[in-house]
Protein 1
Amino acid sequence: MSGETSVKASIFEDHLWLRGPSSGLRPTLGQIGLQQFAPYLINSISLSWVTHLASALKAHDMTTTQMRALAVLSISSPVTINELSQFALTEQSTMSRTLDALEEQAFIVRKPRPEDLRVRDVEITQAGRDAFAKVWPTMYDLLIRMFDGIDSEEYKAFTATMHKMMSNVRKHGIGSFQRDT
Amino acid sequence: MSGETSVKASIFEDHLWLRGPSSGLRPTLGQIGLQQFAPYLINSISLSWVTHLASALKAHDMTTTQMRALAVLSISSPVTINELSQFALTEQSTMSRTLDALEEQAFIVRKPRPEDLRVRDVEITQAGRDAFAKVWPTMYDLLIRMFDGIDSEEYKAFTATMHKMMSNVRKHGIGSFQRDT
């Protein structure tokens, strides 16, 4: 290791959250360990999920972004392109192209909002709902396999921690995808 | 919602883990809710982390993949390209190009292994360790902000759940990035 501090790994475990960022007593990554460094685990699991699903979606002739758009719209429709991009974790420019493809397949329609014709709302069609309903079992079954051996209580605790993190992301302005253009 | 089943949202919360994937009683995504669908939260947090860090790394003239390679090598060196790619969550082809750039900056060296000259080991240099040590405070401080209000016990429970998921990823063969080429 780089030996930049003399803090021991055990101190990370016991006192990590008592120290602020400017205390000057940062443990090294080696002292924490890659498997205890939460962002590494999150990125790794995210990558496995996305990669596996992208490959399964190919059988349905659907991209990840198309699936995400339909998933959001299956819950809430109509929405603006801006709302849809945010919820579907996709940049607006990518979402625009995705909506072109979805409109061609008649899975969505874009309509000017009567009160403000400059705003176009995105609405899912029944064909779009049916298309998402066809891929949903794959997603749900993947969820079940990923959480194999994890009970409902642990699942709730896990998502509760992530809700705190999402709130920190907003509170501390931790970069959303939209800043990266 | 698509109305494909008559299961209520509350049942998802209570009985999700009692039902197998083939029970035919899948709740819809709308019944679960996007904010209770763990993969959505994981992907969202991963995206915020990666995007924020990528932007911070620019000030150090470093890409995400370069940072990941140096991070892994700061813990374990020398390693093979294959090991490095796996731990750094990066495809081998991308990692090869990344190593070219890192070698140019004298942050790593590639050496044929004496026992088997066909294998080339990747080794971090002191300059490489120094370069990672310069970006590490940014990463650590981001971690602290992301886990603001989350104590050590909750952090441990959170990573423990992710370890179970990583084990499920391996056990159920849930796609690693390397399948996606």
Note: Chain A has two domains: 7-36, 48-153.
Protein 2
Amino acid sequence: MVDIVILGTIGLDDIETPFGKVKEALGGSGTYAAYASSFFAKPGIVSIAGEDLPKRHIDVLKKRNISMDGIEIKGRNFRWGGFYEFDMNEAKTLKTELNSLADFDPELPADYKKAKYVFLGNVDPTIQLKVLGQIEKPELIVMDTMNFWISSRKEELIKAIKKVDVLVLNDSEARQLFGTVNLVNAADMALDLGPKAVIIKKGEHGALLFFREDGKRKHFSAPGYPLEVVKDPTGCGDSFGGGFIGHLAKTKNLSEANMRKAVIYGSVIASFNAEDFSLERQKKLTWGEIERRFHELREIREF
Amino acid sequence: MVDIVILGTIGLDDIETPFGKVKEALGGSGTYAAYASSFFAKPGIVSIAGEDLPKRHIDVLKKRNISMDGIEIKGRNFRWGGFYEFDMNEAKTLKTELNSLADFDPELPADYKKAKYVFLGNVDPTIQLKVLGQIEKPELIVMDTMNFWISSRKEELIKAIKKVDVLVLNDSEARQLFGTVNLVNAADMALDLGPKAVIIKKGEHGALLFFREDGKRKHFSAPGYPLEVVKDPTGCGDSFGGGFIGHLAKTKNLSEANMRKAVIYGSVIASFNAEDFSLERQKKLTWGEIERRFHELREIREF
């Protein structure tokens, strides 16, 4: 039985940053989100991978408490290549080979359909809706998206947003989707579509959580963790989402107060993820380190 | 007797934003910082103004508890013109007429020389050093600067930074001055120069305060206030500085804990300042509103 269904890609990434480069590294939104959530609860990945996905990558996931039953193996693996310039703020894409991802038509294993927590990671909104339709009685649906779907599949994306409890996106995506520079206005427009909460990720500047209660907007501002070294930001957004839903699935408490804590846990995992390439830092990460950074984030915002 | 000496410009600003425009509005780093600090203590401005500075502008300052004895009147007033585009993040300068500011050679009134709190607002670092040299026994020197001096007067600027207790600058200025994108590294380099604390202002993303204690870096992250409407960000940085030193001069407590509170008071005044052009919002601002927003900022970062 899985606690969380995680939809997303499993990728083979070629990445270059000012701190180094990797070839055919394990990546993808599903990989990062599932790995991050596995510190808290048992995730099952819904994805498609290629026959060329190296065994060493499969082993990284298998060694964790992650179900692989929802992964179909077919053809050649999805591949992405990109680089980060000096400011590390935005990945510049060099190549996107969809390969088997182009034929992805997910069919969930029986026990996945009974999961209560669902994370619809960054893939085509049509696929997000297909997975959602197979979950029998979800208690919490969290959805992430990105600029590519906002430009190319906006109508379908809005349809999906209307069905979820928590929308997660980054600041530039929020501005793009709602046509405003003001993030408070963007959050209000997102809440108008139906979600109970909206999270706007701001990279090094932390994250904002917006709620509506009795028609009144509520707001939580999570600080960014002051990292001295950012080696590779790839997967930080997905890791944030995984940590966020992971904490909620573990504690089974959807109160505003607990969602605030979940945002902090998401930020903690994301901050560790940026310290090295691929999943290298998360692979070494201990629960003690997570708790220490959680408390550090409490300390740095105290006044 | 003044509590705080505030060095800065008194300007006549032509400003256009997506929300309107003003002509010959009261502006300048000295004006904003002094007005903001006057909610907390008695500031005295050190500046030069022109004979063409309208009486209605002088009256705005005179009506507050602000000493004007350090203002020299001479020739034509300093004028600045600029506009903000849709994203409101950065002012684009259309004109800078130094006029009488070019001959500014400050001579402090006797009682200013005895002040304990000094705010060296954004002017030529040579002038900042000249004012500092006239203060007999300062207890706290806070210094603000901007990109223009970083490009054109870096050596003099570094000389000034070495003599101050708190350096205030914004994120892009910190990156420019220390040649790094990482703000934690920039703060470390700033602390290496001598200041006890460094504040990096991040606009809507809040502000960071860095300290060093027994060789260990301490860090405070102040949230940004979630403004629904930003009409004109001009003077927000100076207002932040004024609110920051104002709270410290009022409470006479330079502990780290109280500096954190001072950062929040600075953020509160700056957030109000952005809600209207020139000093319009600050002119209507009450102490009750300041305290309410201070507590709101505590509430939005709670977890």
Note: Chain B has twelve helices and 13 strands.
Protein 3
Amino acid sequence: MKQRSPGLEALREYTRPVPRLAVPGSHSALQILLGAREEGLEAILVATRAQFEAIYSRFPWLYTRVVLLDSWKELATRRVVSELRGLETILVPHGSLVEYVGPDNLLDLELPMLGNRFLLPIEASWEEKMRLIEEAGIPTPRRIRSPGEATGPVIVKLPGAKGGRGYRIALPGELEHVLSEIEKLGYKRDEVIIQEFLVGVRLYAHYFASPVMGRVELLGMDQRLESNIDGLARLPPGIASRLGLEPSFTVVANTPMVARESLLAKILRYGDAFAEAVERRTGYPMTGPFSLEGVVTDDLEYRVFEFSGRIVAGTNVYTGQQTPYAALYWEEPMYMGRRIARELRLAAERRQLEKIIT
Amino acid sequence: MKQRSPGLEALREYTRPVPRLAVPGSHSALQILLGAREEGLEAILVATRAQFEAIYSRFPWLYTRVVLLDSWKELATRRVVSELRGLETILVPHGSLVEYVGPDNLLDLELPMLGNRFLLPIEASWEEKMRLIEEAGIPTPRRIRSPGEATGPVIVKLPGAKGGRGYRIALPGELEHVLSEIEKLGYKRDEVIIQEFLVGVRLYAHYFASPVMGRVELLGMDQRLESNIDGLARLPPGIASRLGLEPSFTVVANTPMVARESLLAKILRYGDAFAEAVERRTGYPMTGPFSLEGVVTDDLEYRVFEFSGRIVAGTNVYTGQQTPYAALYWEEPMYMGRRIARELRLAAERRQLEKIIT
Amino acid sequence: MKQRSPGLEALREYTRPVPRLAVPGSHSALQILLGAREEGLEAILVATRAQFEAIYSRFPWLYTRVVLLDSWKELATRRVVSELRGLETILVPHGSLVEYVGPDNLLDLELPMLGNRFLLPIEASWEEKMRLIEEAGIPTPRRIRSPGEATGPVIVKLPGAKGGRGYRIALPGELEHVLSEIEKLGYKRDEVIIQEFLVGVRLYAHYFASPVMGRVELLGMDQRLESNIDGLARLPPGIASRLGLEPSFTVVANTPMVARESLLAKILRYGDAFAEAVERRTGYPMTGPFSLEGVVTDDLEYRVFEFSGRIVAGTNVYTGQQTPYAALYWEEPMYMGRRIARELRLAAERRQLEKIIT
């Protein structure tokens, strides 16, 4: 059942040959702004006063206008939406925006949006999210439905895109206790997900689904640095265990990496399969950036524990640079922020904007 | 005693002013293909049907022709060799090719090959391999000849380039048990090597031996991410030890790094020394990419536990990019794949191809 | 109280429209030489014979002249200073130079120096160093004044820039013992610093204070790889603790990273605040490269445990490349070595050299 798209309806009013980007000031805004500039598109920065002053006011050459908000919730108000539509902007959403504005508000936002907005409610539910990965035929970690099912270490994840904050690792015997602690924080059991904790190399693959080029491009990969777990792991032997520190998984930074070339067979296939599954499920094509996030185990399986339906912050490792994978598709430096602007520019030139927005 | 080189003999038949590259589709093929393209050389992709369809068919602009194989063993058949000679190609070998086709088959292959093919039998034997590093005067980890000699942790490595699969770490008291387990897998004791396990920072240095420029260039460095060991290392305290998981060392990915500048004194010297030792031992110069793989201990010694006589996959971290070391030699982006093509092009222009192939 | 600057006095004698750089051959010299070359400035390499032969003699195209020393102490002699003044050079100092020549000798050196030389005595004392960070309003780890104050793991750091050599981590009960061991090595208790050991993601931020552009630029970040601690952390469970190896923190290598974008609010502000605190304390502006070195904890606080008043070696990860942060300020690749040369060139063109040297 194909839903109506408020973004496509809003797009019909636009008359400029080349649209402007509306870039929410957070997450990966700097590379998106830079990419727009390099592709000759105008970018409108939408930011809270606090973040504008602290970060974006230092880079005035990266945008042509700024729409200031007192709080992120304002983004969904008639006033701001109307201003952004008046400027004929296409919104480039990212994980922080989803967290700040809320998936429901974004789903109904009457503003053209790069990508497939119908992924928003799917991502908001662990149940739906993992089902979509499975529908794509992509291997996932074993799902634990009740504490009794756990046979090895598990990870308990909270709902929403919180950059890993509040995630917990537990052994089977500790799981019931961990769940009751999480309940005390106000979460319901069916909001969290319990997954087998896979031991291997974490790999966050960055894709761009391009209707204009008719392909899903692999543009990069990264590994996350998380606090405090990456600090705990590096403590001298004997000290970590005596500290009694609870491990935490707040994403703090990212580092670049490349995969063994033979793994690309799976990584490329999963990218295609994910895009196809999204189209089957939502009735709209997958467009723009997305990410598959998983672990490569020592049998060289890539098992995906999560996805992001839009740009991930790990792509920031390549801001302004060529990436080792983008180089296979593009001669000029093509990081994710620029790839977004390139697609918008090409789609506008070919009058295919309705193919990449919802 | 200098052996005859089947590649040099095959080269005599070639008449094109600029040769073509034959690139086996695996390992680091994408950057080699890209490098050929950037240097204006034609590349012939040689790939199994399965890998072609899964990976290389997505990048048809990276090669001008593809030679499809049902299995890698076919590469050494008269039909394929004859086709590749008819196309006047120079084969660019890599670790996966050695593993798939076998060092003996490659040694006898009647096809010009970039690099020194007489390293192949040396690399196939741990005994010969480590002796060559020692002949170069490069410090190595202590070799353990029998379980009784171990005084600290050791690593037991299987023969062949398996990307670290099956390697085992053991403390002295466990070594006898580990060796008997490895024997049960069908390996003989004199095929494996036991080395002191050095605790420090792993450093895989990427070199290019250039007869055309008359120098050994340091083009980059990387660190390997291995599964499951890198996952085990990051488990919260207390969990890893209770899991009872056997550590494994399958190379999954690579990350870029640079060394403390003062370490370059050793790293550069060892590169030269290795190239000289190869020429002394085989009678042919070291040419093309190679790698020294070791650990920097806290006394700033670089001890080399292995080498690769051809391109290592860690160079993939710089595909299409300038590297922090190549920038010292070359103004344009010079990753290993492009460096290969550059050398072939320069050698062809100067009619010195016989200097860089065997 | 503003001290006289021997460098500014020496500068008055200079008559060339564009000065030359004097680059001490160690630490980050290669990228500084490369940067000078890319900006069209002449660079004079100053190096010991040993390091020149081992490293810099391989890259003669990176400098126009070399001043050879038998030992680093010679740099402060009248002969060498006079030669470097005769060549109208501006010295680009780095951590190795400070360690080799000594902060007092550098402070008095009658040679123009990029940056604020009055930071040298501050950096030489842990007491002064940490006070400056606190004066800037930047959060720091808790300082432990006596063993009884420790409540969790602490790190004990030796005086001087030794690249982390000799640093020790201890739990409260072990601290007295560790301190007495350090005393046996000849250090006094008031020369070392004891800091709360923060568990999180280490982040070394690279800044450039530019009077010419009127801003402090964030040009990059890195993480250090230290021996043997990074090797210890990766040992299989159970092995590290049974080895009884003392952890050590010798910096061996660096890897690139980027921070979560929202952290930039703090990272950018601390860069400004540090530069302002330096000017308040010394009476001279902060100019040229500097670094803040800290840990991001899981509450997303960035606590700074150290600074470097000049270029840090971690900037080497970007030699010859665009960095993910420099891309926000500069269209052309702008790594720290080139940024130095750019500032010198711009300052010379605008007759503002006295603004950036002391």
Note: Chain B has three domains: 6-114+336-356, 126-138+199-239+250-328, 147-196.
